[in-house]
Amino acid sequence: MEPWYSIDWFTIGQWQQFRFANSWILYTIPALPLLFLFRYLLSQGRSQKLNVSTGTYLYVNSLLGWLRFITPIAFFTGISLILVALARPQIVKEQRIEQSDGIDIMLALDVSSSMTETDLAPNRLAAARQMAQMFVKGRKNDRIGLVVFAGEAFSLCPLTTDYALLDQYIADLRENMIPTTGTAIGDALARCINRMRETEMPALADTASKKRTKVVILLSDGENTAGNLDPVTAAKLGRAFGIRIYTIAVGKVEPVAAARRDSLPDTPAVATSAVDEGVLKSIARIGNGSYFRATDAKRLETVFKEIDRLEKAPVRTQVYEHVQDFYRIYLYWAICFLLFTLFLKNTILANILED
Predict the structure, then answer these.
(1) Which of 8, 178, 193, 240 is most buried (CB neighbours < 10 A)?
(2) Domain architecture of the chain: domains with CATH
(3) pLDDT > 70: what percent of the chain?
């Protein structure tokens, strides 16, 4: 910081940094010349004059004519600086802190053999894995967990804010990591619900954590062909615990009705990877969420962005201000100018110049 006697305190750049607590006082400064004019008009013809010979040199008279304004200018400057000090120039440093309680999100990803289909480049699982990683990286203050399923469902990662760890789990997903064939959607939902229920133990959870929004994002490309729990029943259980469910159907393969497959035994093998949109839509409807269909990698990215937009925890912004006053600097300058004025008023020089 510059010393108080530095002329830098009067530069335009310095004044642009100030915030004046009583800025209205500055508007009184232009009125000061009117007071000087009023004083001059009142004193016209009343003051005594002392005639002093200054010689015949023109430049001397001209110089004395200008010097007679030093005293009123010094007095005007001193009073103006007092008004500046009263306006309280300040430099305010603002700090914003954003806080959010976040939400709980469980990702349920299908890793069955049908996820190796290449209608999403490079394949369905790789595309889902990449988009899930992008989704996790874009979250803040949220606890996210991971459940994987095929013929069985396993909780791979509990709810955590360690996004680097979760990213590694997602990157390691492979289609053969669960040997049991099939697609157990109901069991996957049950695993997600149990993980979220574990965070609500009365002895461990406070009131704020109980009120956290809870979301399941289920991504699958197949029908519910395995597991011990019906998906609709699991969705109703989730709704009872206040859990919102989003479902994403992956793949371009159009669903083939079960009745048609029974009547057409020679239906091509591709029908085994058909998407059962009916059950996924029912799960989303019961779970107060939304159903999405991702027919390519770009659409899958859009789906995750839409869910990211819908599921945002409210953010509280706290603003801290560090206020530093600088009125003393201008008060010191004002005292200097007023003392200078008093000095001039008590010298014969001032009397000569005024007369």
Answers:
(1) 193
(2) 7-94+322-354 (no CATH), 102-313 (3.40.50.410)
(3) 78
